[in-house]
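USER: I would love a firmer grasp of how sequence relates to backbone shape in proteins. This is the protein in question:
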Amino acid sequence: MPQPATVAGVYAEALVQAAAEANAVEPVLSACRDLLAGISAELIGRLDDPRLGKPQAEAALVAAAADAPPAVVNLLRLCVQKNRLPDLRAILAEAVRRAEEHLGRIHVTVISSAPLPPTADARITDEVRRILGPNAVIDRGTDPALIGGLTVRVGDLFVDASVKRRIAEMRAHMLTAPVSDDIWADATTR
């Protein structure tokens, strides 16, 4: 069943298709990431101010994307012309997602309690790429609340191999363990 169209989805799909036709998906992906990092919601609000005017807003965005592929520059111009600047960050984020999907990349989030030693990190990277393929991208993070171990997320799949989870399971098991009314009953029957 097709997903409902969103403004971000329609614009992003058009951008990725244009990039694919120009054999420029990787440069478009990189430019979209750079723009997402450099263009804040506050800046977009200023550029969308009618007092500034569309020609100035377009010029500012084109200058910000001076090194971007033509498809990205055209997207920026179109967003200004069609009054879609408030949607620009969502469009860029969706373009990044769709471009990575087009390139066959799978994001895997690995969270550990502390930064992993290089050998352990390399083992995890090798294992993830062995299972998911060479295009797997590992996003690393830390969460001291895990105490030890790690968690791994791939899309909707979540694997929790943390000490925190094991402690929670032990606690739940202890709280639900049956307790006899007569604690000495076993001792007298021996």
Notes: The first strand starts at residue 106 and ends at 112. Residues 106-176 form one domain. The chain has a mean pLDDT of 90. The chain is about 55% helix and 15% strand.
